[in-house]
Give the backbone structure.
Amino acid sequence: MNKNQGPKKELLIVDDDQSARDMLCRALGRRNFNAQGAASVDEARALIESRYFDCALLDLKIDVDSGLELIEPLRSANPVARIVLLTGYSSISTAVAAIKLGADDYLCKPAGGEQLAAALAGDKTGTALPEISAQPPSVGRLAWEHIQRVLTENDGNISATARALDMHRRTLQRKLQKRPKGQ
């Protein structure tokens, strides 16, 4: 099957995990994208200022920064660019924040090359919606959602979020490093 139909789209991939970034660049390079990787928000900003991108794939958590910070500069550089947020730490509050800031799609890791290519192309037929569980979310999952909402309200500030939750900052950092329970 020939994936190289038409001119390649210029794609920015921002992920602080080098192996994940390299794998995404290779996988999407085979799917009609000219992928350029960045390891940090600062590196991505420099690329956005120097190059034109048709689309971007942003990791939510980039070291101590957030991929959400890159939505506005990408929109300013190209108002019609497709922006997809990719995260291993999904929450309703970050999905809502991403869409409100101008992201076009929000995907959870792991996502396959075909699913990513479809999202970057704006093709909703290639992505299946997750099945909605009849079970209510677990207490752990609800706690994770609450922490994410409060973190978003505090613009990602860990110390302010810890104070708002009446929690020690290190305890909050440990909770944020773990995957949410009861997915």
Summary: The first helix runs from residue 18 to 29. The chain has eight helices and seven strands. Residues 139-177 form a domain with the Arc Repressor Mutant, subunit A fold (CATH 1.10.10.60). The radius of gyration is 17 Å.
